[in-house]
User: Fold this.
Amino acid sequence: MNKFTTSAFRVRSAPHSTLHPSPRQAEVCRPDEGRTGVVNTQDQMTGAGQAYRVWADAPGSFSTHKITALHHNFHKHPLFQLAELANLAKELVPFEQCRFIRPGISQASSFTHDSQHPDGRSIDEVFGRIEEAGSWVALYNIEVIPRYAALLASIVETMRPHIEREQPGIFNINGFAFISAPPSVTPFHIDRENNIWLQLHGRKTMNVWDHTDRVVVAADAVEDFIVRHSLRKVRFKEEFRARSHQFETQPGDAVYFPSTSPHMTSSDRSWTQPGDGVSISIGVTFYTSVTRRMARVHQVNRLLRKAGMSPAFPGESPTADALKAPIGGMVGMARASLSRAIAPLRRVKLAATAPPGSF
Ligand SMILES: [Fe+2]
Assistant:
């Protein structure tokens, strides 16, 4: 296991339905909702007069293709305090974007969640009892609220020069906030997007695996997820743990990981004390021209696999990728058109939905 021991990452003995909702949900953004999408000057500065930012210790060697420990000071931002997140949650209820997992879930469980609390609690009650052990709520696609869309954009903006050195064309910046009282976990899964994950409050252990590790997630499982929206073949086994990068995080710590990097989190009660027992983190996700190209190649690979072939995984053959990507883009657009045409047939629609960020 790779344990990170920078000043911000202390080592001890060793975070979505099953998918992040489609980024198209961002289209429900309501310009008249709450505060405007502009983060004012005061919001952009910490109490100490410093600008909010995310940074790498060695920015020159940052690579979008590698899991990297980062730092940030967004945990001091007013909009990331628990009371403000409770207000945000109330705004997300109508969109069914407050998500709950069933009690007793483990890191090896399937990552399924529901818009209804398992005990039927209201969102006010959820936050009123958030310090109770085992509490868990995730706020999905917070970018639908303009003031948070602006905040998420400002987070990515601070890393944009380093990201776009390798992956130009950032688009669809989304945010997923996880609020829990330990013992709590977020099960093992993968996402389509690149992720800047920030710990905002309390402690959390983050395990991340290289996106190229085919022992942990097989090639066809990645393809299943990208093209068919299924995590059925993405499952944690305890023997995988030793292959992970493990981060012991506290406020001010962040981790960058590339699209399709397997990850999971946990938080135990060792750090908690009365009045301070809630762990808050946020995944800030985004697509780029590179993630779009990979998704398009996956799309074509699925068709080739159906034809009995064993196509090269995206990135293995630049020549093959160059041939597949334009075809994958056209297939994606065709699937998107079909999906819109049969929108009333929801179950069929999911099967027809093109990979988000691919067309
Ligand atoms: Fe995730």
Notes: The longest strand covers residues 171-180.
